[in-house]
Design brief:
- The chain is mostly beta strands and 174 residues long.
- The chain is built from no helices and 12 strands.
- The chain has strands at residues 2-7, 16-26, 29-38, 62-68, 74-79, 85-90, 98-99, 107-112, 116-123, 131-140, 146-150, 168-170.
- The chain is globular and about 40 Å long.
- The mean pLDDT is 92.
Length: 174
């Protein structure tokens, strides 16, 4: 499945022209490939911290995935180009937040090309049932410009936790 994310109208990018995501399901895992296109060198990448759980990744360039089922509960995953990641469980919109245990952490790889920065994520343990997804990204440019990208924005300010942003439907795994 291929998706094109849109910047929130109140936070336009300066040099980034597009953020796309390709998603593939592999049993209980997801493979995501984000492509951030723009002027060479415009994207601010957090310093490398390694493949470890880290809070506050959304403060700079960070790819995000929100995963919901049939009820109000959902999970939030953050993937930094530095290799750091975070995972949280919510009982409902912005309530009941708790660290989400991960048996195996996500694997994050970054490749910078002339036309785009590509962030590939292998996310194990996502489950095999039908899912509602919010695919999002916070993009910070080297000049400090921040833009907030999503499949759909639900309000006057960026809010990736808004259920209106969970518009991608993923059928059960085969």
């Amino acid at each position: 499945m291929d998706f094109l994310l849109l910047p929130h109208p109140t936070t336009p990018p300066r040099s980034i022209v597009s953020v796309a995501c390709t998603l593939r399901r592999a049993g209980a895992a997801l493979d995501l490939r984000y492509a951030i296109a723009g002027a060479p060198g415009a994207l601010l990448l957090a310093p490398g911290t390694g493949q470890e759980r880290t809070d506050g990744l959304w403060r700079t360039t960070c790819m995000e995935l929100f995963v919901g089922g049939a009820d109000e509960a959902y999970r939030e995953y953050n993937f930094s180009p530095s290799g750091a990641w975070a995972a949280y469980a919510f009982a409902a919109r912005r309530t009941g937040m708790a660290a989400l245990p991960m048996v195996m952490p996500p694997r994050i790889e970054v490749r910078q090309g002339e036309d785009a920065t590509r962030v590939s994520v292998h996310l194990p343990g996502i489950g095999t049932g039908p899912l509602r997804l919010g695919i999002t990204a916070v993009i910070e440019e080297t000049d400090g410009t921040k833009s907030y990208w999503a499949l759909r924005h639900g309000g006057d300010a960026p809010d990736f936790h808004d259920p209106d942003c969970f518009v991608a439907q993923l059928p059960p795994a085969d």
